[in-house]
Amino acid sequence: MADGQLTAGAVAGLVGGELVGNHDLAIAGVASLDEAGPGDLTFLASARHGEAFAASRAAAALLPPRFRDLPGGPVTRILVADPRTAMLRVAGRLAPPGRPTWGIHPSVRLGRHTTWTGRIEIAPGAVLGERVRLGRDCRIGSGTVIGDGAVLGDGCHVEAHALVAPGATLGDRTRVKTGARVGMDGFAWVGDGPTRQRVPHQGPCRVGRDVEIGANATVDRGSLGATVIGDGTKIDNLAHVAHNVHIGAHCVIMAQVGIAGTTSIGDDVMIGGQAGLAGQLRVGHRARLAAQSGVIGDVPSGATVSGYPARDHRAVLRQTAALARLAPLLTSLERMTRDHADSD
Q1: Whether 60 and 118 share a structural domain
Q2: Has residue 50 been placed in a domain?
Q3: What's the pLDDT tens digit per position in 261-307?
Q4: Is 327 part of any domain?
Q5: Which of 130, 193, 201, 214 has the fewest CB atoms nearer than 10 Å to its CB?
Q6: What confidence tens digit (pLDDT) does each residue in 37-62 have?
Q7: Is the separation of the CB atoms in 164 and 176 below 8 Å?
Q8: 3-state SS record for the chain
Q9: How far apart are CA 134 and CA 119, in angstroms?
Q10: Do residues 54 and 110 both lie within one domain?
């Protein structure tokens, strides 16, 4: 088997699946159902994509056992309980991330008393302030700025043109993606008109372990208290976390979400894209906030909300269905009113 390839049998072993078909079939890449070619592995997770599966040109497919005998599509099939997760494992094996180039480029500017442990990669044009502390195996991308007194744990990766502001801390294995800003001054003012003055922000920004902060996302520092992001939380591109926000562990926050100041979010919360949260709210553990929700009140633990103002998702669905039924009734009522008027 050539480099960068796996057999179907090897894929089945990697993901712990049951192989149906050609054990020796070569797999060179992964692709979606409609884009996969004869050397690719694809996956099917839902029956609604059955037509695309039947038309797929993929060499093999990952799919749940209930789709074992689905007509059409790739003959070689690997049966797994969770095809999406299995696909990620195979993709990581076929196209592993690039290896770091350990060392410090000559163009890097290092401030006084900056320290690190073990291996480190600092790419061209990066600037590190004074008293920065980096853990083992940290990677700093091109043009990145790490402010005075910032602390990065082991295995952190700050990508190109990102900024970690003075005093911010990142836990082990945290990743800050391209263009993101961590530890910025928040948006807070007092007074009116020409007397309006900025509120100084002197609180810390503390990011936990195994966190990901997406491209061009912004996390503000606290004004007096801290802004905190819990372990394992994933924040998508272009999201904004304001000053003094506390986000729990293992949350998932989608693109363009905005969280206003001093809001507290529990553990394992999911927030859909473009949702907006007003300030000083409490969102309980395991809550689900649908895309484009406008959250202006507290959300209990375990609740699922949607709409504006955000409220119980099932209630929103019932109201939407009722409005859909109301439209033809209004049309009939208007027709009856016109007919009555004509008869007069």
Answers
A1: no
A2: yes
A3: 999 999 999 999 999 999 999 999 999 999 999 999 999 999 999 99
A4: no
A5: 193
A6: 999 999 999 999 999 999 999 999 99
A7: yes
A8: CCCCCEEHHHHHHHHCCEEECCCCCEECEECCCCCCCCCEEEECCCHHHHHHHHHCCCCEEEECHHHCCCCCCCCEEEECCCHHHHHHHHHHHHCCCCCCCCEECCCCEECCCCEECCCEEECCCCEECCCCEECCCEEECCCCEECCCCEECCCCEECCCCEECCCCEECCCCEECCCCEEEECCCCEECCHHHCEECCCCCCEEECCCCEECCCCEEECCCCCCEEECCCCEECCCCEECCCCEECCCCEECCCCEECCCCEECCCCEECCCCEECCCCEECCCCEECCCCEECCCECCCCEEECCCCEEHHHHHHHHHHHHHHHHHHHHHHHHHHHHHHHC
A9: 10
A10: no
Strands 270-271 and 175-176: unpaired
Please say whether the beta carbons of 234 and 211 come within 8 A: yes
Q: Which domain holds residue 53?
A: 6-94
Q: Are 85 and 109 in a shared domain?
A: no
Q: Which of 161, 243, 285, 313 is catalytic?
A: 243
Do residues 132 and 150 make contact, with C-beta atoms less than 8 angstroms apart?
yes
Measured over the CA atoms of residue 301, residue 302, residue 307 and residue 311, the dihedral's sign is negative
Is 49 one of the catalytic residues? Answer: no
**Contact predicate 150/169, CB 8 Å:** yes
Same domain, residue pair 204 and 305: yes
pTM, rounded to two decimals: 0.83
CATH of the domain at 28: 3.40.1390.10
Question: Residue 298's domain is classified under what CATH number?
Answer: 2.160.10.10
Tell me how far apart the alpha carbons of residues 179 and 193 are, in angstroms, rounded to a whole number. Answer: 33
Instruction: Note whether 108 and 60 are within 8 A (CB).
Output: no
**How far is the first Cα of the chain from the last one, in angstroms, to the nearest whole number?**
88
Q: Is residue 170 part of a domain?
A: yes
